[in-house]
Amino acid sequence: MSEPSSRLFGRRKGRPLHVRKSALVRELLPTLQIDPAATPDPRALFAVPPVEVWLEIGFGGGEHLAAQAARHPDIGFVGCEPFLNGVASLLDHIDREQLANIRIFPDDARVLLDAMPDHALDRCFVLFADPWPKKRHAERRFIGRANLDRLARTLKSGAELRLATDVAPLAAWMREQVAAHPAFVCIGDGPTPPPDWVATRYEQKGLAAGRQPVYLGYRRV
Ligand SMILES: C[S@@+](CC[C@H](N)C(=O)[O-])C[C@H]1O[C@@H](n2cnc3c(N)ncnc32)[C@H](O)[C@@H]1O
User: Fold this and answer.
1) What does the alpha-carbon distance between residue 126 and residue 32 come to, in Å, rounded to a whole number?
2) Segment (H or E) for 168
3) What is the CATH number of domain 19-220?
4) Looking at residue 5, what is its pLDDT?
5) pTM flag (> 0.85)
6) What are phi and psi of 164, to 5 degrees?
7) Residues 86, 59: contact at Cβ < 8 Å?
8) How far, in Å, is the centroid of ligand 1 from the Cα of 60?
9) Widest CA span of the chain, in angstroms?
């Protein structure tokens, strides 16, 4: 598959990693890291074939992904995050909580999606994505026609696409973009999270600052 034509926006590195996290990146990451060219089918990434595969795009520090994986040991979780410090935080959760059902693509989710077979995923989370609030940067927002086409191809019929944000222009943009795509129907939109919700770091920061999140759910038809 060819590389996505648009480049990745956002940082790949932050503060230097502490010794423990550096060691996890050096030693644990290679055992969990996905090579999209080698294993396109995500089910084959796990020692025991999982009942479902759930993808989180832009997992940040991995709090949500780790908590979901701990709750659902029979589901295989795939996380994409190009920010190395976030990957290191997820590795810390995996190591401390001994989570066996997470695999990581430490890069642009579009590359992984393009390598996956059709209908490989049962659920996808894109939570508190980078908002790119300026109009001229709208094309950088993850939810847009090109990535919805990628998700429409890789999600199974009946699979859930779960989105959330506390940035009003991004919520409006995402509603508009998904409503215009024929492969998705809305199953939830409002200030109340779904019953099985797990808090994310950005969500908590926003709540502490007085911002109200919006939770959006869609079903792949
Ligand atoms: C605002 S943070 C939110 C992190 C987390 N979901 C949370 O709620 O705490 C958005 C994350 O998306 C990641 N991201 C941006 N573009 C991405 C892409 N194309 N593929 C995977 N992750 C991406 C960024 O690196 C960043 O960590």
Assistant:
1) 21
2) helix 168-179
3) 3.40.50.150
4) 61
5) yes
6) -155, 150
7) yes
8) 5
9) 48
